[in-house]
Amino acid sequence: MPDCTEDQAEYLWQNIVAILNSANMGIEDLVKKTTYLVREEDFAGAARA
């Protein structure tokens, strides 16, 4: 797992895309994604990814 929040968020998106692709779907088929952050200072890094 990457150390910084931005890298973790990018890793998350890579996994979501891979899961969707395995079901012959794409990001356009994603309806909603909810992200829970524990620390307020992590918001900027998560939002950039």
Explain the overall architecture.
The protein is an all-alpha fold and 49 residues long. It has one domain (5-48). Helices cover 49% and strands 0% of the residues. The longest helix has 18 residues, at 5-22.
What is the structure about, briefly put?
By secondary structure, the chain is mainly α. It contains 2 helices and no strands. 0% of the residues are buried.
What is the topological layout?
Blueprint: H1 5-22, H2 43-48
Number of strands: 0
Integer tally of domains: 1
Distance between the termini: 15 Å
**SSE arrangement, N to C:** HH
The assigned structural class equals: mainly alpha
Largest sheet, strands/sense/barrel: none
Cα-based radius of gyration, to the nearest Å: 12 Å
Strand content: under 5%
Shape: elongated
Helical content band: 40-55%
Low-confidence stretches: none
What is the chains' assembly state? single chain
How many helices does DSSP assign?
2
Mean pLDDT: 89
Identify the notable features of this structure and list them briefly:
49 residues; 49% helix; 2 helices; single chain; mainly alpha; elongated
